[in-house]
Amino acid sequence: MRIRKPTPTGAGIAGVVVVLSLALVPAAFAGKNGGSHTGGGSGGGTIAGPMLVTDVNGNGVVNHGDTVTFNVSASTATPYVDLVCSQNGGVVYSATAGFFANYPWPWTKDMNLASQMWTGGAANCTATLYTFNSRAKKVVLATLPFTAQA
């Protein structure tokens, strides 16, 4: 007796293509909703902001010299945020903080947008929400680009 393997039909193949396409749609539109962005890491998460903690010139806009923080939501117990700001392609500011209850330096969640390298002017910034997997590899959960004005 000969066993015949079923061959895929056009409808079967089309169904697989539709399912795969729909699975990719959320990733394609991740991060398109303004101040809250999601990203392509395992576990998932969102980062919103930046929110002003201290508005040095009182204009309600994120500027050099202001202090900001972020609202994060993550499906991990230990989410971290890296904030990196650049001017003319060079990094002028970098900060990292854990956004979880028992992080030993909770005051670092408030990030002052100034450094010895960044003494003024606008900068392009990116906040990255991440965690570490069981092999201590960094897993990016979401990113949030923004501009800090002069």
Q: Could you please describe the fold and organization of this structure?
A:
The protein is mainly beta. It has a single domain (33-148), classed as Sandwich (Immunoglobulin-like). Helix content is 13%, strand content 41%. The strands form two sheets. The protein has a four-stranded antiparallel beta sheet with strand order 1-2-3-6, with no helix packed on it. It has a four-stranded antiparallel beta sheet with strand order 5-4-7-8, with no helix packed on it. The longest helix is centred in the N-terminal third of the chain and has 20 residues, at 10-29. Mean pLDDT is 81; it is low at 11-34 and 36-42.
Defining key terms:
150 residues, mainly beta, Immunoglobulin-like, four-stranded antiparallel sheet, 41% strand, globular
Topology, pairings included?
Elements: H1 10-29, E1 36-38, E2 45-54, E3 67-74, E4 80-87, E5 90-98, E6 111-112, E7 123-132, E8 138-148
Antiparallel strand pairs: 1-2, 2-3, 3-6, 4-5, 4-7, 7-8
Backbone shape:
globular
Could you tell me how far the N terminus lies from the C terminus, measured between alpha carbons in angstroms?
Answer: 80 Å
Share of helical residues: 10-25%
Total of DSSP H or I helical runs spanning 4+ residues: 1
The total number of structural domains is 1
Q: For this entry, what is the oligomeric state of its chains?
A: single chain
Q: Given this structure, which CATH class is correct?
A: Mainly Beta
